[in-house]
Amino acid sequence: MKFLSDLISGISLGSVYAIIALGYTMVYGIAKMLNFAHGDVIMIGGYVSYCAMFYLGFPVWAAVLLAMLVCTVLGIVIEGLAYKPLRSAPSLAVLITAIGVSYFLQNSALLIWKADTKVYPSIVDGSLKLGQLTIPYVTLLTVAACVVIMIGLSIFTSKSKMGKAMRACSEDKGAAQLMGINVNRTISATFAIGSALAAIAGVLLCSSYYTLNPTTGSMPGIKAFTAAVFGGIGSIPGAFLGGILLGVIESIAKAYVPNLANAVVFAVLIVVLLVKPSGLLGKVVREKV
Amino acid sequence: MKRIVSVVLAAMLLVCCLSACSSAPASTSNDSSAAPFKIGGIGPLTGDAAIYGQSVMNGAKIAVEEINAKGGVQLQFQEEDDVADGEKGVNAYNTLMDWGMQVLAGPVTTGSAIAVSTEAYNDRVFAITPSASSVDVIDGKDNMFQVCFTDPNQGVGAADYISTNMAGSKVAVIYRNDDAYSQGIRDTFVAEAAAKGLEVVYEGPFTKDTSTDFSVQLNGAQAAGADVIFLPIYYQPASVILNQANVMGYAPTFFGVDGMDGILTMKGFDTSLAEGVMLLTPFSADAADSRTQAFVKTYTERYGETPNQFAADGYDVIYTIAAALEAAGCTPDMSAADICEAMIKVMPTISVDGLTGQGMTWSASGEVSKAPMAVVIRDGVYVTP
Fold it and tell me: Do A119 and B217 touch (CB under 8 A)?
């Protein structure tokens, strides 16, 4: 019984990681860069929805939509100002820029909303009782949102025109451009989608755990990045699987070896990467010489 | 040419920085004819523990005004923010030293107090903390004193109270194992519980990084059949625990220590969840004595909320400083180091009647003698059970 409850906590945590990891993986898969500011876009999404609900009196769905809109615009602006000029720069320069953007967002939030932790209201109250098991509705919502987003993204990238363009860019930017694909616009669209996902993740993260402060996004961001690598970075089902597994491992570790919870999570990651360096569902890509 | 421009720019930047430093911080001054002693206060005015710092400073300011109005020792009080962080605490301390601080009232939280007390010890500045309760704050530092009871006292007090008044209950402990305050209380609580035959059925540690999700710890406590959960932690994570337990439909008795104080004034927190929460505190705003009532009235009028234990600690710390300054015969023209030596000598000899305890006395090591008291939250106020 306790094991089942822990498993459910793990799946709940894991679905949040998975939604964040989907954003990481999309951007990495297409733009081939690690967007370390992703976790902070989540935090901004959390704050925007919080303010919309608290100060503007928006209903939940409108607050989520507003957060998605703001984050999408923010994602496009960040990409345009910080990353686009570095399109042909070495990947290390882009990585450092991303870390810079991350700090910029955190400190801006600190300036605007101050350091105190806000108590974020739960967007759906109550819980489902199954015998002795209690599952909060917000957990069910998170898992459902995660599955829907994962399936939606898979269909989008395999069927739609923009999705196909994204895959083409991911395989070979130069060749994609020769085929008449606007690479820059495709990458911007990827950022827009990734940031909109971040807004949803922000709302779900804050409402599952009630807290919101300027560093809310950083630890889940790192964990979700780990999840993306775990599942095979660049792969959409991989990010989903990696996120859920990471959440479950973390919860079980917290329950049975409480003092080493985080160490266990990363030890599992190391073992997986030793056995399967491309991650669980990652493709092995041969270096072209 | 470019180089000259950059040198000029750098010089300008430097000048700007220096002038910013030298501009004196605004102060809650008094217009008394006698020169005042400069008392500095350090505590979290923003951040996760902001309620502690703000309450202490508010209480301290009321005490300063009362003492100044009486004539006699005159005080000038200046507060600095440390966000409950050691590094920022040392910065705040340095800012206050530049201002000319002679006695330090603070820091408010343990982590910051440990860092700052080392500096204060080296500089020979007398310091008395309103609420940093770890033994490490005063250990080996003859100039550090406390107004609150120490962590071992809180752990022992809580275990004694539960074993006497809730005999036969099964206790779970959820604590933060990367925090000296929380770990310290947990250690003495568990040791005392074992000595008293109190059954601790579950222990769930967490760290700063994992302080947002307690579902696993609550599952563990529930599965172990705990009916009392001991929370030697600050109010912010405690509010998350109360929320999550509520969603789970798990309703044990939550038992906090002084860190739980502040939960009722947390913005956005549904205080009905705190109904029935018990905590150890030396101060209860519903006490009948006239001094407490006068303080509660002034505080409520001025700040619009009922004072918690930290406000009372802040008030007492200023009265203690004034009493010691008077007993030691200090004058405002003495250096901080001279005042420090004089006050260290008189501290073990004075007795102060405060809001948090009658006839408080101090040992030479800096510990205060007073007993923790348990209260329970009913209809949003503390009452004695």
Answer: no
Chain B segment 178-207 residues within 8 A of A by beta carbon are 203-207
Least trusted range by pLDDT, from A196-205, B95-104, B374-383: B374-383
Is residue A137 situated within a structural domain?
A: yes
B213/A209 Cβ within 8 A: yes
CA atoms within 13 A on the CB side of B210: 27
Parallel, antiparallel, or unpaired for β B144-146 and B126-129? parallel
Nearest CA in chain B to A219: B209
Q: Is this complex scored with an ipTM above 0.90? A: no
Residue B48 at interface with chain A, using a CB cutoff of 8 Å: yes
B320 alpha-carbon distance from chain centroid: 15
Domain harbouring A38, CATH code: 1.10.3470
More confident residue, B172 or B19: B172
**Cβ <8 Å between B216 and A251:** yes
Residue of A nearest to B263 (CA): A119
Report whether A134 contacts A125 (CB < 8 A).
no
pTM of the model: 0.77
Q: Is residue A201 part of a domain?
A: yes
> Which residues, in sequence order, are CB contacts of A2 under 8 Å at separation 6+?
A255, B219, B220, B222, B223
Structural domain including A114 reads 2-275
CB atoms within 10 A of CB A185: 11
Structure tokens at B16: 């700007």
Q: Does A15 touch chain B (CB under 8 A)?
A: no
Between CA B261 and CA B266, with CA B264 as vertex, the angle to 5 degrees is 95
Q: Is the pLDDT of residue B228 over 90?
A: yes
How is residue B100 written in tokens?
């000319």
Q: What is the mean pLDDT of residues A40-44?
A: 94
Partners of residue A129 in chain B, C-beta under 8 Å: 249
Residue of A117, A251, A264 to mutate, interface with B, max B Cβ within 10 Å: A117
- CA B160 remoteness from chain centre: 23
> Which band of pLDDT confidence, cut at 50, 70 and 90, is reported for residue B249?
confident
| Average pLDDT estimate for B28-50 | 76
Percent of chain A past pLDDT 70, that is, above it, reads 98
Kindly tell me if the per-residue pLDDT of A46 is higher than 70: yes
State which residue of chain A sits closest to B49, comparing Cα positions.
Answer: A116
If pLDDT is split at 50, 70 and 90, which confidence band does A286 have? low
Residues in B 90-149 with any Cβ partner in A closer than 8 A = none
B28: which DSSP letter? B
Looking at the structure of chain A, the number of domains it has is 1
Give the CATH H-level superfamily of domain B152-281: Response regulator (3.40.50.2300)
pLDDT band at B20 (very low <50, low <70, confident <90, very high): very low
Residue A173 distance to chain B (closest CA, Å):
39
All CATH 3.40.50.2300 domain ranges in chain B, comma separated? 29-149+292-371, 152-281
A38 — contact with chain B (CB < 8 Å)? Answer: no
- Contact list, A134 vs chain B (CB under 8 Å): 247-249
Q: Is the pLDDT of residue A259 over 90?
A: no
In a domain, A282, yes or no: no
Question: What CATH code is assigned to B29-149+292-371?
Answer: 3.40.50.2300
- The confidence score (pLDDT) of residue A284 equals 67
Interchain CB distance below 8 Å, B48 and A115 = yes
* Structure tokens, A219: 């630890």
B251 and A CB contact within 8 Å: no
